[in-house]
Amino acid sequence: MSFAAGPANAGLIALLTDDVDVEGKRVLVREDLNVPLEGGRVADGTRIRAAAPTLLDLSERGARVIVMTHVGRPAGRVVESLRTAQLAPELARALGRSVKTCDDCIGPVAQAAVAALQDGDVLLLENLRFHPQEEADDDGFAQALAQLGDIYVDDAFGTAHRAHASTAGIARHLPSYMGPLMATELEILDGVLHRPRRPFVAVLGGAKVADKIGVIDRLLKLCDHVVVGGGMANTLLAAQGVEVGKSLRDPDLGPAKNILAEAEEREGRARLHLPVDAVVSKSVSDEAGAREVKISDVASDDMILDIGIDTAKHFRGVILEAEMVLWNGPMGVFERDAFGAGTEAVGQAIVDSGAYSVVGGGDSGAAAVKFGFAGKLTHVSTGGGATLEYIEGKDLPGVAALRKAGPA
Ligand code: ADP
Ligand code: MG
Q1: Which of 100, 130, 175, 195 would you label with 228, given CA atoms 20 to 30 Å apart?
Q2: Collapsing DSSP states into helix, strand and coil, what is residue 98?
Q3: Any catalytic annotation for residue 212?
């Protein structure tokens, strides 16, 4: 079976379906098990649980399952606190079977571990990013990985926006398939982008402002309403000439001015909604100093750290009308109690709307878990940057590599 994702007519991708014979084969699976660790333990296992069905299915079909992932940013060196062995207990729990580990991802150590596998076994290789060649998409490294397997499955949606050896290069050397988790993520996003239910409301916020300008641009064209909080709103407000004090914002106001002009001229179809009030303080750590102010009353030494009550009410009204909601980015510094109310209110409104809802972004997903919404939303994506780049209309290297390799 094959699958089209990304630009139209760009070619098909082979899917890992039941008719792919994996029994007795060494199946190299790239997953994104890049989970937060605390004191040697997994702090949030969402990505591990999301990957588990693919791995369990392969194991049950008699494959020798060899799992590749990165964890954190070791920058090409061995970092003890980022060893994948720490993920093995959580992965074993999610699979209901044991998981072997080894302390390299290529070379004699990995080869010996693979040679010892029986049909159905699951082996978790060491952190790919302990080798600088991984992020450099070095072809020798891609070949060294490819030697470990008979077929390659890319299921790492969260890393699909990176052209690395394990997400792109390796597809040049082995018969390659897209895994079910990645395929599902892309199908859901394709549904949102190409078959939106209306009213379609986008809720945007967060800290990565410069990275997200292209996303707002696309969503203004696609959605009926775009509501904006977080650092993204600060940038748009500053571009309107509003005093935002010391708030987080993009220093370059050019792109934000273009967005405002576009919204004004209604070149896109969406109405843009910005905060009318805010929770401010003198610093992120000064929770006791938090105050609600009108957006025109932010002082030059204030930081905007959440949307205010009136804004939350207005955003709620817009969201309650929605049939479809796409949410990326918290409304404020939700990690701190004094600045979490706006994010919680918006999440609650999305749940109450009963709309088909998709949440993308690592911190947005964490906020959904923190406030207890994760199970009440239609889909919480395992992708952050990958989700955003896909929404923006970019071709993801991890997807493109599978397309080029073509059906096996
Ligand atoms: P995601 O990972 O969901 O794509 P981002 O990484 O862009 O989201 O942003 C998440 C971060 O944004 C959170 O850690 C949150 O504390 C921060 N944030 C949200 N609003 C503000 C604000 N007004 N000022 C500073 N930081 C903010
Ligand atoms: Mg983030």
Answers
A1: 195
A2: coil
A3: no
Distance CA 76, CA 129 (A): 5
Cα 22 to averaged position of ligand 2 atoms, centre (Å): 36
For residue 151, what is the enclosing H or E element?
strand 151-154
Give CA–CA dist 226/220, Å, rounded: 7
- Among 102, 122, 124, residue whose Cα is nearest residue 22: 122
pLDDT by residue (tens digit) across 273-319?
999 999 999 999 999 999 999 999 999 999 999 999 999 999 999 99
| Residue of 208, 212, 249, 403 marked active site | 208
362 is catalytic: yes
Element (H, E) at 385: helix 385-392
Q: Which CATH number fits domain 2-186+395-405: 3.40.50.1260, 3.50.50.60, 3.55.40.20, 3.30.497.10?
A: 3.40.50.1260
Å from CA of 90 to ligand 2 middle: 23
Catalytic annotation, pick one of 169, 179, 268, 362: 362
41 annotated active-site: no
**37-71 per-position pLDDT tens digit:** 989 999 889 899 999 999 999 999 999 999 999 99
Cβ 204 vs Cβ 29: under 8 Å: no
Point out the catalytic residue in the list 45, 360, 385, 398.
385
385 is catalytic: yes
Residue 408 has pLDDT above 50, yes or no: no
**345: number of Cβ within 10 Å:** 21
Residues framing ligand 1 (Cβ under 6 A): 205-208, 230-231, 234, 248, 304-305, 328-330, 332-333, 335, 361-364, 384
